[in-house]
Amino acid sequence: MALISELSPHPGADTIGDDPRGDLSGQWAYRLDREGIGEEHRWFAAPLARGAADGAADAEHGHLDLPGSLQEQGIGDPVTVGTPWTGGIVDQSYFTEDRYAPYRQGEDVSVPFWLQPRMYYRGAAWFQREIQVPDDWDGRSVILELERVHWESTVWVDGTRIGAENSLSTAHRHDLGRLAPGTHLLTVRVDNRTVIDVGPNSHAVSDHTQGNWNGIIGRMQLHARSEVEIAQLRAFPDVAHRRVQVRIDIGSGTAGVGEGSVSVRARRLGNAGSSVAGSGTEAIVVPFTADHGEDLGSRGLLAGCTHLDIDLELGEEAALWDEFDPALYELEADLVARTGEQEHRSSVRTVLGLREVGVDGTQVSVNGRRTFLRGSLECCVFPLTGYPPTDLGSWRRIVRIAKEHGLNLLRMHSWCPPEAAFLAADEAGLYLQVEGPIWANQGAAIGEGRPVDAYLHEETRRILREFGNHPSFVMMAHGNEPAGRDAEFLASWVRTWHSQDPRRLYTSAAGWPAIEENDVDNIPDPRAHRWGEGLDSRLNDEPPNTRADYADWVSSRRRPVISHEIGQWCVYPDFEEVSRYTGVMQPRNFGIFADFLREAGMEDQAADFLDASGRLQTLCYKEEIESALRTDGFGGFHLLGLTDFPGQGTALVGVLNPFWESKGYCTAEEFSRFCGPTVPLARLDRRVWRADEEQAVDVQVAHFGPEPIVADVRWSLRRGEAVLADGTVASGVEIGIGNGTRLGPVTLPAGIVDEPAQLNLALTLEDAEGGIAENDWDVWIYPEPAEPAVRAERAGTPPVFPGPPASVRSTDDLEEAAALAATGNTVLFEVAADAIGNEIALGFTPVFWNTAWTRGQAPHTLGLLHDPEHPLFELFPTEGATNWQWWAALHGSRPMLLDGLPVDLRPAVQVIDTWFEARRLGALFEARLGQGRIIVTSLNLTGGDGASQRLAARQLRRSILSYMASSAFDPQTAITPAQLRTVLR
User: Fold this and answer.
1) Which residues does the annotated region (Disordered) include (predicted)?
2) Do the Cβ atoms of 564 and 510 come closer than 8 Å?
3) Tens digits of per-residue pLDDT, 290-328?
4) Could you tell me where the DSSP H helices lie in 468-605?
5) Which pick of 40, 486, 640, 643 has the fewest CB atoms within 10 Å?
6) What is the pLDDT of residue 985?
7) For residue 51, what pLDDT band results from cuts at 50, 70 and 90?
8) What is the CB neighbour count within 10 angstroms for residue 548?
9) Which CATH class is domain 678-782?
10) Can you spell out the DSSP letters for 337-371?
């Protein structure tokens, strides 16, 4: 469905759509006000173009195009080490360490902690142009509307100060008064310094994401206001009765009594905003008498006149709005009034979706049907412009991509998007969690009587007034992760706004606190990796299985839990992405990281690092999302994130880049297999088992579709395209809404393979209409060897190996390994983790968020890279990147630093370091030493205590030794004993 872009949910004009006479887009004069002297020197009283006479430099004034920003038009200053950024910097090493010295020089600097604007300006800027007031506006108040300003706007007309606005979330509207027809001088001062301390990392203001830009974007227009008008229209759907209560405030700036009527009607919208035949309602006409109201002046609104509540029946066949069928209506209200002999007209149109959002036990419901929120953060990251788009097309693209990946919600982290985002989400049936522009932490706080407390309530009122009718607006939080007396203050905030506008769910904040007043709790528990857990997190500490869920959490809560910012799994930088940055924001951080990689001699591996780390990232997201889906009654999750977060030290956590584009290792189709309305789930005790073992699989279906389904459920074990075994789990089974459908268990038979194999277990769900949902899991099956296990004995014990070479010796002692190899032996040197002196933490998962922002939280690496065709892996099937069969070998191990080895030695199992360090790391390498040959590995080849760990680790060791016993073992690079000793640093 495509909604007409002119649909206006905000009243204020007596005509709908843009009056071309009031369009203010185009060329404006500008002047920078670095010292804040413009008001004192009365810049508003004369054309800014004369500013040069006051001593302003050429770069300080001129002409530019609005809507737009200073930065995108090359106005401002080059970035320097002393640039006064808005945003916290945790890792200060950039300012002190020698390795960053080349990037701190003069005006040609590169910062590693976020995208860098081409120009930077923080301060006041003045914009000015002449405006024309038409003859037919004579005697009427003129409203100046500026859709999005960053941050505070102050307005003068013909040298007279009108007022100031400071909303970060909604349009600034200034009542210019009754202007005489003709030409007037309009001056706007915009200041992007901190007006209210909302927190330096709030995505509404921070350089971490959109950037601290200065300017005006979106609509810039004048309206003539009617003396009696619809000041506010709110639509409150009643799903059960298929009607909507239309609440209308009528305002008047005219003395005396006005009489009139309001007519209200609705029509169903189809493609391109056309009406659906037969779907309109008859107009309801309601008379009123309006006394003189209060003029709110600079807000451009009238209030106090009278209020009407009108029940509009939509009919028994009225369509409901949700993620599956986003049926939209246009609601139109027309006012005709008289004061004395004068007639006044006002018309407002707004979007309407017949939907109700509520709570059903521990889950959210939409129109009475339980749903599971599958969300991701949208952090206001728009590299080309450095500010969010206000056009419908840009937001339609973002919403489409989000839904293609199986999401049904976007959380706007500490910011409120422009109107176009709501319209695009309305059309597509995507839910939005909107937040105030506040992250009151890192020095800021709420509930302590600071200005931010009042500002939060002002912004909430403005957001609900401006966007409250949008059906996509299903959830609201005050902002993100507060500090201060947050619980007490936010309890009152939730109560206040829930009572005033109950059309959505409210939660105190994203992150915390979990208070009784919340409709839902959006908290950091439960999730697979919590902040600070490091190698003790579940995926790093517990052997691979697919049974983990959060049932204990659900049973302990009385309301839905939405997991806060799950995932945060990093991937290596995609240096090919750099060419995409053709606008305001530059990836100078990527340039630093590319230099580090080149200096380490690994520049040619960048693409391989991206692919291998990306595949590990994807399987971690898969397990984390499935853990939530496996939890019966769970509320949902917010990913951090589907796209990269380029700030906070550079957090490359997305399977998509900041442009919402694929990085090449995971498609939307692949992601939506495990993240969507209907997802088959397999509960496995382990992912590795012996070939002579049967394996039990419990089957579960998470189904949050539009209605229950009847389906056939089948399983299969595949190797590539070949199906080795398959069967039926259930035929014609009814699957209701929810994730409580359990089927099976299914017994996977023994003896499927007689050689080591990586197989794929697939579950396929086919409903009566032929619709299919499928999901799959990699598993590994290893047969016990027919001969005694191929092994290397301790030095001095006769080896047991078929074929050449004549001897393979195993040791964990460095000097013994060097001596044995030097005298012509083939040696496996197994390096114990506690023998390695570096502090590089190697886990199964990749880096969490990033090591700079987390102060070096473990793990410090991004997975493994290896050649799956290498004969080393003949008995240990692998695909070139970390997968679950590597868990045992990685658990308890540590990477080796290889910078003391020859530069042409590439490890057979390479560990991918974080991009901040780009160290040469390895977990297994082969070389010639003296007259012998050696494999050195720091992998854990004993595998710990569990049977599946020992099985996978032993299989890897068997494969290594089989390779070493073969003629294929022929390393080319020679090392010395001294070089060997360096790996123990």
Assistant:
1) 1-22
2) yes
3) 655 444 333 334 445 789 999 999 999 999 999 999 999
4) 486-500, 538-541, 551-555, 588-599
5) 40
6) 84
7) low
8) 18
9) mainly beta
10) EEETTEEEEEEEEEEE----EEEETTEEEETTEEE
